[in-house]
Amino acid sequence: MTTGKRILPALTLCLSALPLTASCEEPAASLASPNTSASHTFAATRNGNLGGSTSVSDVNIHTLLYPGHTTKVLAHYLPWWFDPESRGVVVGYRSDDPAQALRTFKDMHARGVDGVIVDWYGEKDGNGQPEPIDVAWRKSMPELAKFPDMSFSIMVDAGTYNFNHCKGCDVTQTVISQLDYLSRTYFSSPQYLRYDGHPVVYEFGLDWSGKVDWSRIQAAHRDISWVHIHKQGFDRDYSAGAFVWVSSGFARQKPKVADLAELKEFYRYARTEPAKIATGGVFKGFDDLLAAWAKPNEKHYMPQSCGDTWLQTFDVINQNYSTARQLPFLQLITWNDYEEGTALESGIDNCVTLQTSLSGNALGLTLSHAETVDHLELYQSLADGKFRLINRYAPATATIALPAGSSGTFYVKAVGKPFFKNVVSAPITVGRKD
After folding, report:
1. The whole model's pTM is what?
2. What is the CATH number of the domain that holds 209?
């Protein structure tokens, strides 16, 4: 559901209070306060990104995967936010700000993310100056080091050649020219992602930029395990593996249900190549409405469907993998690509509404989109402005018995499954007459 169609949370919660109280109060902001690394001033966008003031569930992302998994969950990370005028969205922070990097990794860590895949554009820009994305990531690494259980990997983007290739170099020569720098600057880090002892390097779209001699690239640094986009990574002898990416349809068609046929085909194909590294992918949807590089007649779209798309991408993984057949890596697509509507940083809209009714000490609950909710929490408001957690309940709970002799103000919080927004009920006044 796009942000233009969402009912404002304050209005939804206020309406749900009317059966209980004669007046309508503001919801308890501190129970659903902004809690992510997104800028709190960032406004929701027309292509489906929630605003930075959203309260997002920090239930561990691993709870959505099959029991007994050993999968590392890695967020696709874009450290390219600098000049507000340079991109289609003003996100409210700079990627080269170490303080912002610390907030980012703290947020990821709180949600159970194991590391990042850094979208990388080379060491130098087209003018031979330090590439801003590379500079931003090098400034971020000391902050990542504060979370030693997190790892990172480099994804060599096609932009490395399209915008920053060495003078007179083709795609192959451009990549080879970068390998010593990658090895020297990143592979030596104890946090660099490895598989069977080899540094894992992803590549995005280099074959779309021109003919690439991957055998020469592999020969230049035989220690690297190259993981390529889409199924082609499974087919090539020199490839160590493949990763899947979101496959969206044309925006003009505006499908209501996500087409996950290519995603399913990726995993089916991956199962036939068990010796190769498979990196799965999950995403909430796609909408490049705000991407400056996407031509008006070539815009693409995949619906979020109030969180159904996100959950379905996990379901496909869980249908194909188990403790007997493990998925090595899973990529969250993406942490912060706000232009293409895939940003997970500020959460996923699950369209949840939470209505309450009171009969004696029985609190009735009506919850929409319960499949996106991890659990419910009952809170009592205290005199000092704080809140006391009374108990936790399953999302299917229809009635809560309030403690005998209860009085005061209570709230119910619907805590989302990983990455979904949290929703707090309107105030519930008990044992007090106006």
Report:
1. 0.91
2. 3.20.20.80
